[in-house]
Design goal:
The structure is a single chain. This protein is mainly α. Among the domains are: 1-83; 97-227 and 258-266 and 274-356, no CATH class. It has helices at residues 2-15, 22-42, 44-60, 68-80, 86-95, 97-111, 114-127, 131-148, 151-173, 195-220, 228-237, 241-269, 280-296, 299-320, 326-339, 346-351, 356-375, 380-387, 392-409, 412-429, 434-449, 460-466, 470-473, 478-502. α8 packs parallel to α10 (195-220), α9 packs across α13 (280-296) and α20 runs antiparallel to α21 (434-449). The N and C termini lie far apart (74 Å). 46% of the residues are buried.
């Protein structure tokens, strides 16, 4: 009986969080046991902040265990302990429903454009041999696209391209043909002679992914369609597309220039994990792949590229003019790209949703943590302190910094929602003038968009990249993302602050 009990206990232990290290499992169990004690001894405010730090730990350890399970356990416990309610979690989810639809449909839509994307970016990669120029190009293109599309869509494109490159090379060094089925998550079949080049290629892809991710933030701050909170702020302030761009320009344009200069300097100096060039052996494999694809391309394949190209033009037009919610546009992309390219089998459609749905689930869990912030008023002391500042310039700068710091910890959409609501109440009560409201609204938007590149918590695009299938295979962890983003965080945040003080 004792032996059976021991065996069953061991089975439960082994099954809990699967293959995660034992120290990680003990940490999560410790959090779950500690939170009720903290709630009783220190109160809900302190317990709520500890919960946020615990959730950040789960994100930081994403390569040890996908954050959905441990983060979900923390969110469920928060509801049980009364730190928030199921209704508040639901309300937060509904508030962010456009983002959920975007992930469900737009990311899947991008999947059906991967042939065109891989074709286009392979040409770019093989044509532009200078790594600094290629990096600036990736960053700048991501910025421009994010200004007229949205950051998550652009990130989905970049991830698709990165996965495509990696899969092609990994197949070849595993002794397989370009057209073979292959599992790129395991290096068991990779010849030991290729390990060094594979590590260098991972470093090369990591740097490109991070440059592009930062680019989405550089462009996302500029227009009202760039980030979800931009649209929210514009709606409250009553700004149209052109006015929004012009009001942000005194801050967004200097930050854009400094961001691109930072990109160039990082590649030139080889600091913070940047500067790795494309290994020559990898370039040869990709060149062979390009020749192979060109030689075997039939008229049907060419017609597929044309359909995907026309769909991309439609996508840019629809998003640029905001013809519908982004998720609805994404669904229309799926319909167009599959209907005209002969993809009608259910299993081929289902494969496209595999990448987005785990992250969508994680995002809803994240909204559960945000619900705790909302119900326990965890940000209220900071908000009250900033609103109490009387000097106009100091107050605007403080809003920028406060929004930036809080966005590093929490969701920048939530932070922007809280702050814009508070200053709108102050405007209605006569506590601030319309001119001051406009300045503070600009500070809120830039604050939630620029300093938040510091961590994956603040930028949904960064979090999406961190939890994507690409991150583990190129060894892009939470800590590495924070380290690689650090120089961007410093240069862009300081530039934004100086612009708020002297140009706004």
């Amino acid at each position: 009986m004792t032996m059976a009990s021991h065996t069953m206990a061991q089975a439960f232990t082994d099954n809990f969080l699967g293959n995660s290290p034992n120290w990680y499992k003990l940490s999560i169990v410790g959090f779950l046991l500690l939170n009720p004690i903290l709630l009783i001894l220190a109160g809900p405010f302190f317990a709520g902040w500890c919960l946020i730090l615990e959730f950040i730990f789960c994100l930081a350890m994403a390569l040890k265990c996908y954050p959905l399970q441990p983060g979900g356990l923390l969110a469920i416990e928060a509801v049980i302990l009364g730190l928030t309610s199921p209704q508040t979690v639901y309300d937060e989810t509904v508030l962010n429903f456009p983002v959920i639809m975007l992930l469900m449909f737009m990311v899947a839509g991008i999947f059906f454009l991967k042939e065109l994307l891989l074709f286009t970016f392979t040409k770019i990669l093989l044509t532009v041999e200078s790594k600094p120029l290629l990096s600036v190009l990736f960053c700048a293109v991501a910025a421009v696209l994010s200004a007229f599309l949205d950051a998550l869509t652009v990130t989905a494109v970049v991830i698709t391209v990165g996965e495509g490159f990696y899969l092609v090379y990994h197949k070849v060094i595993s002794g397989k043909q370009f057209t073979s089925e292959h599992n790129a998550t395991s290096d068991d079949e990779v010849d030991v002679l290729h390990h060094s080049d594979l590590d260098d290629f991972r470093s090369f892809l990591r740097s490109l992914m991070m440059h592009a991710a930062v680019g989405t933030a550089l462009g996302g701050v500029c227009t009202l369609v760039g980030e979800p909170q931009n649209l929210l702020i514009a709606k409250v302030a009553g700004w149209e597309f052109a006015e929004f761009f012009l009001r942000m320009a005194p801050i967004s344009m200097p930050v854009l220039v400094v961001g691109l200069i930072t990109c160039l300097i990082l590649e030139r100096t080889h600091r913070f994990g940047f500067g790795q060039v494309l290994p020559e052996k990898v370039r040869l494999v990709l060149a062979d792949y390009d020749v192979h694809e060109t030689e075997r391309r039939t008229l049907r394949d060419v017609s597929k590229l044309w359909v995907q190209g026309i769909t991309v033009v439609y996508l840019c037009f629809a998003l640029g003019f905001h013809l519908a919610e982004v998720g609805v546009i994404g669904l229309s992309v799926i319909v167009l790209a599959t209907a005209f390219n002969g993809i009608t089998e259910e299993h081929r459609l289902g494969h496209a949703f595999k990448e987005a749905l785990p992250f969508t689930s994680l995002l809803v869990v994240f909204f559960g943590i945000v619900a705790v912030i909302h119900d326990q008023h965890l940000f209220t002391p900071v908000i009250e302190w900033v609103l109490a500042i009387e000097d106009s310039t100091v107050q605007t700068s403080a809003f920028y910094l406060a929004n930036g710091i809080l966005s590093m910890i929490s969701d920048n959409v939530f932070v922007a929602t809280v702050y814009i609501s508070e200053i709108f109440k102050a405007l209605e009560s006569g506590a601030i003038t319309r001119e001051q409201f406009d300045l503070l609204a600009v500070a809120i938007n830039t604050g939630t968009n620029i300093p938040s590149v510091a961590t994956p918590n603040g930028q949904a695009a960064f979090l999406f990249l961190l939890t994507s299938a690409l991150a583990p295979i190129i060894r892009l962890s939470y800590g590495r993302m924070v380290w690689m983003a650090l120089p961007y965080t410093v240069t862009m945040s300081i530039t934004g602050l100086l612009a708020v003080i002297y140009l706004l």
